[in-house]
Specification:
Number of helices: 9
Radius of gyration: 22 Å
Shape: elongated
Number of strands: 8
Strand content: 5-15%
Largest sheet: 4 strands, antiparallel
Strand order of the largest sheet: 3-2-1-4
Structural class: alpha+beta
Length: 282
């Protein structure tokens, strides 16, 4: 109606990524985005601009806006989580109306997206960090896919034993391992004792995830676990071993296996930490 009251403009977010120069070059183009990418989000109306690096969220004392979502918490906890995708995908629709062809990769073209409803100041503050973390998950997963070993060979270390036992060619299913890890993270976040997990760094997840992730890939990682070539406690930080219990990896790919697992573990840590902060302000 001409002259009638104007409806308020919807809140919208514009998201971009800037890569910083690095003296140490990563092994992959995707790896260049890790530790050296700044994610910028502009929210209108108002034009508030917020910058995040994922390292700043995890490794510094910068306060996480995820902890301030008290009025939003019940809706977040009712989200239905699917381990076949990022656990954050269950809560993203509460923060953003994404187009069907949306690509989370930081270097993709990102149109302006709408923030649904009448968002509180706490929700508006959480949107930039949520977008940065979700983009970083894509980068980590792509790095893992590029660097991951998809097959290893385990052989008896003693010649007499090797003469009677052929080498074990083991295909590795990292996707199954990641899915099992996400299912366990979902379980951990729903448990009443979430504060007792004492998970404050990626390495702290080893005791909760490593054995379950290996057993999800029974023919590959599970076999390595059974041979003793994986330390199920993960206490040493790098749980994949070159040799144990009379078997050895030939060639030795333990370093590559550790790198692949570490990237998956970091993805799971980001999803765990973001949701723990949203659910429990902890």
């Amino acid at each position: 109606m001409p002259g009638g009251p104007m409806l308020p403009l919807p809140y919208q977010a514009t998201w971009t990524c800037r890569q910083e120069s690095r003296t140490k070059v990563a092994k992959t183009t995707e790896g260049e985005l890790l530790h050296a990418a700044t994610y910028t989000c502009v929210i209108t109306p108002g034009g508030a601009t917020t910058e995040w690096t994922v390292d700043a969220w995890i490794n510094t004392h910068r306060e996480s806006p995820f902890k301030q979502l008290a009025g939003f918490r019940d809706s977040l906890r009712r989200a239905r989580f699917k381990p076949t995708a990022s656990l954050l995908d269950a809560v993203v629709p509460l923060f953003l109306d994404l187009p069907l062809d949306w690509d989370w990769h930081p270097t993709a073209a990102h149109p302006t997206v709408t923030i649904p409803g009448t968002p509180s100041a706490e929700v508006l503050a959480a949107v930039p960090l949520l977008m940065a973390v979700r983009g970083e998950i894509v980068v980590r997963l792509n790095v893992c896919r590029t660097l991951s070993v998809d097959r290893v060979t385990a052989v008896p270390a003693k010649a007499a034993v090797a003469a009677k036992n052929p080498p074990l060619a083991l295909p590795l299913d990292w996707a199954a391992a990641l899915q099992a890890g996400r299912a366990q993270i979902d379980h951990m976040l729903s448990a009443a004792d979430v504060a007792d997990h004492k998970v404050n760094a990626p390495i702290d997840l080893n005791a909760h995830l490593l054995e379950l992730m290996c057993k999800a890939d029974a023919k590959g990682l599970g076999t390595l676990l059974g041979l003793g070539l994986i330390d199920p406690s993960g206490r040493g930080g790098n749980p994949f071993r070159e040799r144990a219990n009379g078997y050895a990896l030939e060639p030795d790919r333990s370093g590559d296996l550790n790198a692949a697992y570490n990237h998956l573990r970091f993805i799971l840590f980001m999803e765990y930490l973001a949701l723990r902060q949203m659910f429990y302000a902890a």
